[in-house]
C-alpha cells in the first residue's frame, strides 16, 4: 500500500502536457487500452527497386524500428492486466485516465529495466516498495506464461508418434477411459522433459562453441527477391513433392491414422441410459439381457468402442452377466468380434472352471471359421488338465508343439499333473525327459510328482530311474523322496531294499519320519515276517526312534488280518494315547470283529463308519463287506454293498458275487 501511495503522489505531479509528450509509445498504449490509437500520418515510403540487393536500402528513412518481440508483448499485456486491479482497488476514486497514466509510468520503468534501454532524464523514479510490488506481479505473470507454454507443449506432444504408438499398445492390452488419458498425459510429459533436457544440452553446447569460436561477420542482408513466374516446385529425397498425388497420400494417411488413434466412447444419455440400467439389474441365471441390449443399440447406434465400454461397466457390476452379454455380442456385426474376444471369454470360463461354457465359446469360434491360436490353446491345456480331460488337453498340447511354440514350465507342469491324475506316470516321465530337448530344466516338484505316482503304483524301478535323472540334473534328494521310494518297496513287499534305503536315508543326514518307518513295516507285512518287523522296530526304539500313528496303523492292519484280537485292541489304545483316532481303526476293527463273530463290538465300529461313510474309500468298503460275509452277517454286508454303490464306487466282481450268494441263502446268518 505504501508503494501505491508513493505512485499516487508521483502521478499528481505529472503535468497535463506529459501525455502529449509521451504520445509516441504505441506499444505500451496497445496493452493499456483495448484499441490501438490511429497511427500518425507518415510520408509515403521512397521507391525501392525489386532487385536482389546485397546492401541495406539507402532510402532516406529514419532509424529502423526494432523488430517486435512476441514474448515481451505478451508479458507486458499480462502485466498491465494483472497490475490494473491492484491500482483500481487502492485508488477507487480515481478515474480511468489517471490509472492509465500511472500504469504507463510503471510500464515504462519495467520496459527500460527489461530491455536495458536508457530511461531518459524525464523518467519517473519508482520507490523500493513499488519495485517490490512490481516484481511480485511480474513473477506471477511469468509463472502463468510458463504454465501456458507447458500446456501448449503437452498438447503438441500428445500427438507425437511415440505417444501414439504407446497409446495403441495400451488400447490393445485393454486399457480404456480415465486410466488411458492419464497414461497419455504422463507419456507426453516424459517426452517434454526429454526434449527440454536435450534442448538444454544443445544450448550449453552452443554457448561453449560461441565462446570458443567467435561469430563471423554478418552476411549481407537481402532486401528484395526476384519475381518468380510459374508454379513452385521442390523435391525431397528425390521426390517431386509439388505433385498433386502427395495431397491424396496425406489424406489416406490421415484416414489410416484414425484407425490407430483410440476413439472415445459416446456418452450414454436418455433412453440408452435407462436401457443400460435395466441391463445391469438383470439376474444372469434367470433374466434375458437381449431386449435391453437391443433398445440400447437402437438409441446409441454403437461402434466397437461403445460396446467395449458397456462391457467394462457390466463386468464391474456382475461377472456372470458380463460372460452372458459378451457371448451374445460375438454374433453382433457392429461389435466386430476378433479372435482376442473369443480367447478372453474362454480364459474367463476356464478360470471359473466352467468347462461347458468355454466349449460353447470354442464351438462358436470354429463356426465363424476362426482357428484357435497359441494363446487359446494354452488356456485350453490348463483348463482341460484341471478338469481331468486328458484327451482334449493332449490335443491342444500337441497343436502348440506342432506350431513350433516352445512350451513353458507352467504348461508342461499342467500336462504332467494331468497324466498322473489319469494313472499314466510313464507318459508324464516321457514328457519330463523331453524337456531336455527343449532346453527347459525340470523342477524338483515335477520329479517329485512323477516319483510319487510311480511309488503309489509300486513301480520301483521307474521311480529309481526318475530319481537318478533328478540327481543328474543337479537336484538333491529330499526326505520326501526317500519316503516315497521306501513306500514303493513296501507296496511290492521288498523289505531288504526298503531297510537298505532307510539306512541310506539316515546316512545322508535326513531324519526318518513315521511314513518311512511305516513303509518298511508294510514291506515286512507283505512277506508276513512279523518277527523280523518287531525286532526291527525294537532296534529303532533303542536308538530313540518311536513309531507313530501311521506305523501303528500298519501294525493294526496286520494284527487284524491275523485275528489277534487282544494285541490289536492294545494297539488301538496306544494309537488313541497319541491323540488321534483315524477312520482306518474302525475299518480294521469292524472286519476283525465280524470275522471273529463278536457282533456287539462289530456293530459299535459299524455305527461309527456309517456316520463317516463319505470318508470311506473303495478298498475300505470291500474290506468291511468281506469281513461281514466271512462272519455271516449277510444283511449288514448287503447294506454296506448298497452304501458303497451310493457313494459312487463300483464293487469288485468277488464282492458282488459274494453278496448276491449270501442273499440267496435262507435261514438268517450263516453258521
TrEMBL record:
Xref: InterPro entries? PPR_rpt, TPR-like_helical_dom_sf
Q: Which Pfam families match?
A: PPR (PF01535), PPR_3 (PF13812)
**Repeats (PPR): which ranges?**
338-372, 373-407, 408-442, 478-512
Q: Output the PROSITE patterns linked to this UniProt entry.
A: PPR
Coiled coil ranges (UniProt) are: 561-619
* NCBIfam families per the UniProt record, alphabetical: PPR
Protein name as it appears in the record: Pentacotripeptide-repeat region of PRORP domain-containing protein
Q: Does the keyword NADP apply?
A: no
Name the species this protein comes from. Urochloa decumbens
Ordered alphabetically, the record's keywords are: Coiled coil, Repeat, Transit peptide
Amino acid at each position: 500500500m505504501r508503494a501505491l501511495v508513493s505512485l499516487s503522489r508521483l502521478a499528481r505531479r505529472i503535468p497535463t502536457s506529459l501525455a502529449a509528450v509521451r504520445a509516441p509509445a504505441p506499444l505500451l498504449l496497445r496493452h493499456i487500452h483495448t484499441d490501438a490509437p490511429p497511427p500518425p500520418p507518415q510520408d509515403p515510403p521512397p521507391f525501392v527497386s525489386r532487385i536482389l540487393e546485397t546492401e541495406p536500402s539507402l532510402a532516406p528513412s529514419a532509424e529502423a524500428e526494432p523488430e517486435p518481440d512476441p514474448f515481451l508483448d505478451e508479458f507486458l499485456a499480462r502485466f498491465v492486466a494483472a497490475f490494473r486491479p491492484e491500482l483500481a482497488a487502492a485508488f477507487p476514486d480515481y478515474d480511468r485516465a489517471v490509472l492509465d497514466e500511472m500504469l504507463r509510468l510503471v510500464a515504462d520503468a519495467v520496459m527500460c529495466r527489461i530491455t536495458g534501454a536508457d530511461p531518459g532524464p524525464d523518467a519517473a523514479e519508482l520507490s523500493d516498495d513499488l519495485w517490490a510490488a512490481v516484481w511480485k506481479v511480474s513473477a506471477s505473470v511469468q509463472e502463468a506464461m510458463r504454465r501456458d507454454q507447458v500446456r501448449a507443449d503437452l498438447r503438441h506432444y500428445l500427438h507425437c508418434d511415440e505417444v501414439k504408438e504407446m497409446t495403441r499398445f495400451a488400447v490393445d492390452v485393454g486399457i480404456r477411459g480415465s486410466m488411458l488419458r492419464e497414461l497419455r498425459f504422463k507419456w507426453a510429459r516424459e517426452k517434454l522433459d526429454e526434449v527440454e533436457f536435450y534442448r538444454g544440452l544443445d544450448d550449453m553446447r552452443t554457448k561453449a562453441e560461441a565462446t570458443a569460436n567467435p561469430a563471423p561477420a554478418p552476411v549481407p542482408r537481402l532486401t528484395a527477391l526476384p519475381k518468380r513466374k510459374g508454379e513452385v516446385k521442390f523435391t525431397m529425397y528425390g521426390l517431386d513433392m509439388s505433385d498433386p498425388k502427395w495431397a491424396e497420400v496425406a489424406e489416406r494417411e490421415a484416414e489410416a491414422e484414425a484407425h490407430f488413434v483410440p476413439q472415445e466412447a459416446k456418452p450414454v444419455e436418455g433412453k440408452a441410459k435407462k436401457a443400460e440400467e435395466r441391463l445391469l439389474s438383470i439376474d444372469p441365471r434367470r433374466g434375458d439381457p437381449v431386449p435391453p441390449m437391443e433398445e440400447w443399440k437402437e438409441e446409441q447406434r454403437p461402434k466397437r468402442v461403445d460396446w467395449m465400454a458397456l462391457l467394462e461397466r457390466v463386468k464391474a457390476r456382475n461377472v456372470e452377466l458380463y460372460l452372458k452379454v459378451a457371448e451374445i455380442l460375438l454374433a453382433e456385426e457392429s461389435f466386430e468380434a476378433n479372435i482376442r474376444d473369443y480367447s478372453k471369454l474362454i480364459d474367463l470360463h476356464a478360470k471359473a472352471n466352467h468347462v461347458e461354457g468355454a466349449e460353447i465359446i470354442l464351438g462358436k469360434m470354429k463356426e465363424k471359421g476362426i482357428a484357435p491360436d497359441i494363446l487359446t490353446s494354452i488356456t485350453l491345456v490348463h483348463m482341460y488338465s484341471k478338469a481331468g480331460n486328458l484327451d482334449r488337453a493332449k490335443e491342444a498340447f500337441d497343436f502348440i508343439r506342432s506350431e513350433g511354440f516352445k512350451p513353458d514350465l507352467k504348461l508342461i507342469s499342467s500336462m504332467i499333473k494331468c497324466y498322473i491324475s489319469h494313472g499314466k506316470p510313464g507318459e508324464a516321465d516321457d514328457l519330463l525327459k523331453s524337456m531336455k530337448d527343449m532346453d527347459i530344466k525340470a523342477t524338483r516338484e515335477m520329479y517329485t510328482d512323477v516319483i510319487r505316482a510311480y511309488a503309489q503304483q509300486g513301480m520301483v524301478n521307474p521311480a529309481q530311474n526318475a530319481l537318478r535323472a533328478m540327481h543328474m540334473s543337479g537336484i538333491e534328494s529330499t526326505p520326501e523322496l526317500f519316503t516315497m521310494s521306501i513306500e514303493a518297496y513296501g507296496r511290492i513287499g521288498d523289505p531288504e531294499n526298503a531297510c537298505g534305503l532307510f539306512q541310506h536315508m539316515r546316512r545322508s543326514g535326513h531324519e526318518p519320519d513315521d511314513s518311512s518307518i511305516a513303509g518298511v513295516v508294510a514291506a515286512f507285512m507283505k512277506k508276513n515276517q512279523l518277527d523280523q518287523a518287531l525286532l526291527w522296530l525294537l532296534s529303532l526304539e533303542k536308538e530313540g526312534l518311536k513309531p507313530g500313528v501311521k506305523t501303528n496303523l500298519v501294525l493294526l492292519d496286520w494284527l487284524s488280518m491275523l485275528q489277534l484280537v487282544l494285541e490289536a485292541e492294545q494297539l488301538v489304545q496306544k494309537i488313541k494315547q497319541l491323540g488321534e483316532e483315524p477312520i482306518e481303526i474302525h475299518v480294521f476293527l469292524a472286519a476283525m470283529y465280524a470275522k471273529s463273530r463278536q457282533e456287539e463290538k462289530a456293530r459299535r465300529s459299524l455305527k461309527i463308519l456309517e456316520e463317516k461313510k463319505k470318508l470311506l474309500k473303495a478298498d475300505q468298503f470291500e474290506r468291511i463287506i468281506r469281513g461281514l460275509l466271512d462272519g455271516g452277517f449277510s444283511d449288514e454286508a448287503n447294506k454296506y454293498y448298497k452304501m458303497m454303490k451310493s457313494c459312487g464306487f463300483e464293487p469288485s466282481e468277488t464282492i458282488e458275487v459274494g453278496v448276491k450268494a449270501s442273499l440267496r441263502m435262507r435261514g438268517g446268518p450263516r453258521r
